[in-house]
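Retry 2 of 3 after timeout on previous attempt. Resubmitting structure tokens to design endpoint.
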């Protein structure tokens, strides 16, 4: 389902490039804050990564018949061909309704502490169940999903192989687990930053290294660190200075809706910055399309820093080095419907 292309010659050339005097100290500082995405893939104890389960998850991810209308699939909002997002400010769902928030990328989501902007889903399996049942997204029910899947011989066979030994393998929980297994393969290793962190001095140019230094020195890495450059903690949006109402809509109070505690008012999970250069628009509101503008907003709102043009340009250049190898996913052939397969509802 997935192929990565790496030029061995290119990597060797980078490793052979002459080291710059400040690379060692800068790299040591960076290693204290960041990790590379392993080429071997995510190693999560709670996710079963068998070929049968991954292949089933891919079918479910791409199948629009999971939605009540037969139009929307996971791929609709998390397009694997454009960075794992849909490229919209907020996603379009059932009845052509606009969703309340921007769709986060599915790429590298397996490394996040929780899913959704407010962290209401503890893992990818829990996340997979949410959009299916949301009236503004797929507008379906667990019962109708399992009924649809059981009506197609291809899915009956695929679930039996993915969940061997189970008397009734086609359940809503197993549906979510299979999607989780597939999504765990959607990682983007071998970014130029990762190559540099592992010792390839020529992988970053001077401006990009200045951007990395500024990213750390200005405090960006306080929230955006770890393997995914974020996705691990929750912070108030507007920690120092609240952004405008278009960027931070009054009605969206973030994690407060999950915990109902005052301390979580307008608190959101720090956005992962992997592949940020190709996943516009930005923020949960999705109203900012320019990465340079997003960096300026974060400097003012989160750091209380009036970043100068050089710092902003350098940080943006550095963020571009976080774009990794994109997973090449082959669209699966989906099971054929039968006379028992529920017909799509009119929107």
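Retry 2 succeeded. Sequence:
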């Amino acid at each position: 389902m997935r192929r990565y292309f790496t030029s061995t010659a290119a990597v060797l050339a980078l490793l052979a490039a002459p080291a710059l005097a400040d690379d060692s100290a800068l790299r040591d500082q960076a290693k204290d804050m960041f990790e590379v995405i392993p080429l071997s893939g995510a190693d999560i104890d709670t996710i079963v990564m068998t070929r049968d389960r991954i292949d089933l998850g891919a079918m479910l991810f791409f199948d629009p018949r999971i939605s009540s209308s037969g139009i929307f699939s996971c791929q609709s909002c998390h397009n694997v061909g454009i960075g794992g997002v849909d490229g919209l400010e907020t996603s379009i769902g059932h009845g052509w309704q606009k969703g309340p928030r921007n769709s986060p990328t599915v790429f590298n989501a397996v490394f996040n502490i929780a899913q959704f902007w407010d962290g209401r889903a503890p893992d990818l399996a829990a996340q997979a169940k949410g959009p299916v049942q949301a009236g503004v997204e797929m507008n379906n029910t667990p019962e109708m999903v399992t009924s649809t899947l059981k009506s197609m011989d291809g899915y009956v066979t695929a679930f039996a192989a993915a969940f061997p030994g189970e008397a009734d393998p086609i359940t809503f929980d197993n549906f979510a687990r299979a999607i989780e297994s597939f999504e765990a393969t959607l990682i983007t290793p071998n970014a130029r930053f990762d190559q540099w962190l592992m010792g390839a001095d020529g992988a970053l140019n001077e401006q990009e290294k200045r951007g990395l230094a500024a990213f750390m020195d200005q405090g960006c890495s306080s929230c955006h660190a770890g393997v995914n450059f974020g996705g691990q903690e929750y912070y108030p949006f507007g920690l120092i200075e609240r952004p405008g109402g278009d960027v931070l809509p009054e009605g969206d109070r973030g994690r407060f809706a999950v915990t109902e505690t005052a301390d979580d008012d307008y608190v959101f999970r720090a956005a992962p910055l992997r592949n940020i250069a190709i996943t516009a628009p930005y923020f949960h509101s999705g109203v900012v399309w320019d990465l340079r503008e997003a960096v300026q907003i974060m400097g003012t709102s989160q750091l209380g820093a009036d970043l100068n043009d050089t710092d902003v340009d350098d940080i943006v250049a550095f963020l571009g080095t976080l774009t990794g190898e994109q997973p090449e996913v082959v669209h699966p052939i989906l099971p054929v419907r039968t006379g028992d397969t529920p017909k799509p509802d009119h929107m």
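Attempt log closed. The two ends are 32 Å apart (CA to CA).
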